[in-house]
Amino acid sequence: MASGNVITLQFGTFSNFVGTHLFNLQEWNSISDEVDFEVLLRERNVAPVNGQRQYSPRVLLVDVKGALQRSESDLLDVASISKQSRNWDGKIVNINNRIDIEDGDVNADDVHNADSDETKKANEAKKVRNGSSWSDYRIHDLNQKNIHVLNQFTHVESTFSSFGQGRSVYCGSVKDDIEEKIRVLAEDCNHLTAFHILTDADNGFSGLSSAVTDHLSDEYGGAATLPFPLLSHEFLSNKISLLNLAMSVDSFNNSCPLIVPLSTCDWDAKYQPIQRKFRQLSYKMASLYESSSLLASYIDTITLPYRLKRPLSITDYISSIKLAGCNMMSSSLALPVSLRSASDTNELPIWQKLSPWSATDFGLCWRQNLVLKGLSLFNESLSSGDALARWLPKANQDGHLSPLTRVNLVSEPLIIKKPFPPIFNQGLMPDRCVVPVGAGLHNDKGIVGMLNVLTDELKMLVSKLGRFHHVSESGIERDEISECLESLLTMKDCYSSY
């Protein structure tokens, strides 16, 4: 079966940080014997470079005015952007095709210090490394058909804050332009099988992405729509963040087969962000540039089963994980996959949850899809079930795998280059490294934690709505909140019934 094509729609600044890393990964990993990179990328109608055909993302990104930092003309200047992004300070360091990961570290040859005559080049690359804007580290090519800017809202003022705003802005020229650009992307596909929706879930983009998703359901019903609501550390800095997320989840639940909320943060009882810790990573939770790289690595890995050259169909992928009424999935990431199981040490577990308000363990899990990428790096064979099971997240209280566990093995590792952030514990990111990565999609009871938070918030709003003027000013009525509450309570009951 040939792979189909997937269009990615990105809504909001944090989602564009994630999407930029995601498509940088596609470029670095485009030469593959296993992965069909034309699922997410399209061939450009330009002359080959060094005998290689040129590709660009099948993507439409939406953001507010000023989020791009550069002017739109500068952003679309392919020649200058490509040169800036690829000419990095320091010497290129070759590494072996195999690396040892006995201690879980990503080992590569030592990184050479930059020569003194390259100081100027280092300064020029500094802005890209800091990643103050997602456009600073983009290495793939875009054109005007890939971008829509909401000029009525600005990045500095952050006034695009509510689900209701996002829903209401989807009209007139905004609606026409977004739908036309989606149509052009769809017509360019040989066989459109799915849309990936990357969306900020705490602001107005939650409503805009939900409205666009309803359009996709009406016009492209044969293609699955898979939303990834994304939460950064700034979530809950907005007074109605929880309401935005709840309305978004409810809307997606009505039109999408799966919902996968993602964050590198959890939140305590006072709604203060807590950074999720990974065994071999040191990243800054408050850096959108760094935290988004983890979520991009997850999305790249977990979607591999239907992006392979011998793929699983998107229909089979969904049916293998979905249960009636349980559309929202929890997620986990192992970056990098270590050869030491968690039981061998007192260290953090190999697999870390990326689901907001989800228990760090895997609790009661009914179904799960796991992807391990980079098996060629391991010195021991993981072909047998017993050997493989040691490295997988245990998804039942008895310490065994869920009886309905689908494991997808990919031999080739993940190739990472600059400007991927230097988040590995061993120190400075080398110019090129290869890492094994694991990603999990779990239909488990852990998602109830998030539903508890959302339903408690909605109950409070319904009972005391008159005290919260910012809610009534957001364009969302009491009846809508009540209906959303009932829907989420029904979803919660579905998870409790299994």
What is the CATH homologous superfamily assignment of the largest domain? Tubulin/FtsZ, GTPase domain
In the sheet with the most strands, the strands line up as: 5-4-1-6-7
Q: What is the averaged pLDDT score?
A: 80
Oligomer: single chain
* CA radius of gyration: 22 Å
Low-confidence stretches: 76-125, 341-346
Overall strand count:
16
- The best one-word shape is globular
Spell the H/E element sequence: EHEEEHHHEHHEHEHEEHHEEEHEEEEHHH
| Distance, first to last CA | 34 Å
The level 1 CATH classification of the largest domain is Alpha Beta
Second CATH tier, the architecture of the largest domain: 3-Layer(aba) Sandwich
Q: Tally the structural domains.
A: 3
Task: Count every helix, treating DSSP H or I runs of 4 or more residues as helices.
Answer: 14
Report on this structure.
By secondary structure, this protein is α/β, with parallel strands linked by helices. It folds into three domains: 5-94 and 136-319, Rossmann fold; 330-446, no CATH class; 449-497. The protein has 14 helices and 16 strands. The protein has helices at 13-28, 72-75, 78-86, 119-130, 163-169, 172-187, 204-219, 241-255, 288-302, 314-319, 385-389, 448-463, 469-472, 478-497, and strands spanning 5-11, 41-43, 55-57, 59-65, 147-154, 192-200, 224-230, 265-267, 273-275, 330-334, 352-353, 365-373, 404-410, 414-417, 432-435, 437-444. The strands form five sheets. Strands 5-4-1-6-7 form a five-stranded parallel beta sheet, sandwiched between helices. Strand 6, helix 7 and strand 7 form a beta-alpha-beta unit. The radius of gyration is 22 Å and the shape is globular. The model is unreliable at 76-125 and 341-346 (pLDDT under 50).
